[in-house]
Amino acid sequence: MVTIEQKLTLFSKLLNQDIKEEVDKKFKELDKEYEKKIAENKFAIDKEASKIVEQARKRAEIKKVELISKGRLARKKEIMMIKEQLIARFMNALEDKIKTFTTSNDYKTYLNKTIQGLKGLKDNENDLVIQITKFDYEHHKEWIQEAFVKGGLKADKLSFEIIAEDILGGFIIKDLVFSTRIDESIRALLEEEKYRIIERISLAIGEVGEETHE
């Protein structure tokens, strides 16, 4: 006959076995759950890391583009500055040559052709003021007047004055009746040609720049 003590011992063993199985089961479930969480966290971390790497790559690409753009802009500014300096130097040198030209016999030929080309003033009856440089007033005034008279104008309708503006050479005609102004100065001619001069210098600088980068 099984004693109470034996029954208690058996019950205790069964109870311990059930508890052990339950504990083992719980631990296995916990292990699976943590493995799942670790896998999920690893995926999230890898995803975040990839995102950070991609953002860093994009920032680096943007920075690269910015640096290239800044470099190109700096080069354009440098070329523009060189262009402006060359244009200024060329125009100054050209003005010096023009001033030398206005003291030569070729200048008188130039003035004569310019005056003879003013066909619209032939037989003009209005009073005209001829504005010329100080040099021309002192050295060529009588000759210029004769050239205008040969062109069909009356001497008593012409008066001469020294112009305050730096017209380099040539002359400006003012009609006192109609308040009109005909600018035949070398300065006006130079201004007309200035854009063509700038274009030529720009093309020359562009060609040099292309050769430098080949």
Automatic annotation (TrEMBL):
<dbReference type="Pfam" id="PF01991">
    <property type="entry name" value="vATP-synt_E"/>
</dbReference>
<dbReference type="GO" id="GO:0033178">
    <property type="term" value="C:proton-transporting two-sector ATPase complex, catalytic domain"/>
</dbReference>
<protein>
    <submittedName>
        <fullName>V-type ATP synthase subunit E</fullName>
    </submittedName>
</protein>
<dbReference type="GO" id="GO:0046961">
    <property type="term" value="F:proton-transporting ATPase activity, rotational mechanism"/>
</dbReference>
<dbReference type="InterPro" id="IPR038495">
    <property type="entry name" value="ATPase_E_C"/>
</dbReference>
<dbReference type="InterPro" id="IPR002842">
    <property type="entry name" value="ATPase_V1_Esu"/>
</dbReference>
<keyword id="KW-0813">Transport</keyword>
<comment type="similarity">
    <text>Belongs to the V-ATPase E subunit family.</text>
</comment>
<keyword id="KW-0406">Ion transport</keyword>
